Amino acid sequence: MRQADGFQLYHYLILNSWQFTESAVNADLVIIITCGYHTVLEEKSVYTADTLFEVAPASAVFVITGCLTKINSRVLPSRRPFHVVPPRALHQFDPIIDADIPYNDTCEPYTQYSFPGLLSIKKKVTFSRIISNFDYSHLKKISRLILTYFRNKKEKIAPVVNCRQTIRIGWGCLGACTYCAIKNANGSLTSKPYQKIRNEITSASKKGYTEFFFVSEDTGAWGKDIEQSFSFLFENVLRSEVIKKAYFGAINPQWFLENYDILETLSGAYAEKIPYLRFPLQSGSARILEAMRRPYCIESTVLHLKLFKKNIPRIPLHTEIIAGFPGETDDDHTRTKTVLRDVGFSVVSVYPFSTRPGTEAASLPDQIQPEIIRKRVKELEEIARKHAG
Q1: Tens digit of pLDDT for each residue in 342-373?
Q2: pLDDT exceeds cutoff 90 at 387
Q3: Would you give the DSSP letter of residue 265?
Q4: Residue 90: exposed, middle, or buried by beta-carbon count in 10 A (0-12, 13-18, 19+)?
Q5: Distance between CA atoms of residues 49 and 197, nearest Å
Q6: Boundaries of every domain in the chain
Q7: Higher confidence at residue 3 or residue 86?
Q8: Which residues pair with 215 in a beta bridge?
Q9: Going by C-beta distance under 8 Å and a sequence separation of 6 or more, which residues neighbour residue 33?
Q10: For 178-198, how does the pLDDT look when each residue is reduced to its tens digit (9 = 90+)?
Q11: What does the pLDDT read at residue 107?
């Protein structure tokens, strides 16, 4: 989601005549998009901000945004003044950059490696961000492409365009997970109306885009606040003739179970359009899932995942696991290992439990020792590799 917001900010800044520079040393404006989902990401965000504070010129204006500003703002370094823009209030950039085109008037969706029409260059900006598994070479590629584009603007050479478009379908979630601080930053579910999503697909397809990534903090909950359902969106996306590949953000298991019949039917009919589906289990123990406040039956979920995999083997299944949640016993850990063996996910992302400010899990008793958590992470990763299918 931060990646989607980052590309939207990029587009907004270009429309307002800002140019990217590969170094903060000569930047007029430095934007840092943080992540506070996990302690490791928080530390990387703080380190990035501290480093840029040191190398940027004294005249540079700093803006820090992203969910860390809402989750744990007290850890942000304070040796230089900076503006704070909350993740769901990016329009607050307007007075900071003296925008000619307001943020809310910039077009969506969030374009990856796509550049607007011919612009004059009168400002510079360095754009830094932190997000799990982010390839920083993308930023260099963006800068090089921009410089090439502007260098050749008199010849009106078309920019290089990646074929994938990211569309944010909503904000916030309906969950109340005891370990997650993201809701504290992004609030409850706000679904983007389908008509707007369809218009964005149509607009992007006219520019040559054929692959789409649909993202939200709670992808499978889309539509519940506007009397629609994720199955409706899933069906219309897959039936679209202009979409060749459809990537979906993580679908929580309760929504997978709720929409199972139509998800299986459509996935079978359009398997070639779906590179993978991601269902974050977080644990294989019913007891731990209850403590996490994850509202689904693990036995039913595993049964349906195995059935889905049997009926539609062409679509890889991904999941996420949290190791070392407070109170997790050896038996709970073993149950998670059993689930990974039984299902055989193609990709398993294992995260060590991290206490986050403002979450119930941070104050739960029976916190697991770090060395035990590390051991369990390694065991889960090994089983995931061994049984990947």
Answers
A1: 999 999 999 999 999 999 999 999 999 999 99
A2: yes
A3: H
A4: middle
A5: 34
A6: 2-155, 163-245, 276-389
A7: 86
A8: 168
A9: 2, 5, 6, 9, 65, 66, 128, 129, 130, 131
A10: 999 988 888 899 999 999 999
A11: 58
For residues 261 and 239, give the distance between their C-alpha atoms in angstroms, rounded to a whole number.
Answer: 17
- The dotted CATH code for 163-245 is 3.30.750.210
CA dist 168 and 1 (Å) reads 8
Q: How big is the CA angle at 350 (ends 349 and 353), to the nearest 5 degrees?
A: 135
* pTM score, whole prediction: 0.81
Tally the C-alpha atoms within 13 A of residue 389's C-alpha that lie toward its C-beta. 14
Core vs surface per residue 202-239: b (16+ CB within 10 A) or e: eebbeeebebbbbbbbbbbbbbbeeeebbbebbbebbe
Q: Do domains 163-245 and 276-389 have the same CATH topology?
A: yes
Beta-ladder partners of 20: 125
| 59-102 confidence digits (pLDDT tens) | 999 999 989 999 899 999 988 999 999 988 999 999 999 999 99
Phi, psi (degrees; rounded to nearest 5) at 130: -130, 130
pLDDT of residue 346: 97
Q: 318 Cβ partners below 8 Å, 6+ apart?
A: 276, 277, 278, 279, 345, 346, 347, 348, 349
Q: What is the largest CA-CA distance in the chain?
A: 67
Q: How far is CA 167 from CA 5, 87, 145, 218, 237, in A?
A: 10, 16, 22, 14, 12
Name the class of domain 276-389. Answer: alpha beta
123 Cβ neighbours under 8 A, 6+ residues apart: 17, 18, 19, 28, 29
State how far the Cα of 200 lies from the Cα of 109, in Å rounded to an integer.
Answer: 6
Mean pLDDT of 298-326: 98
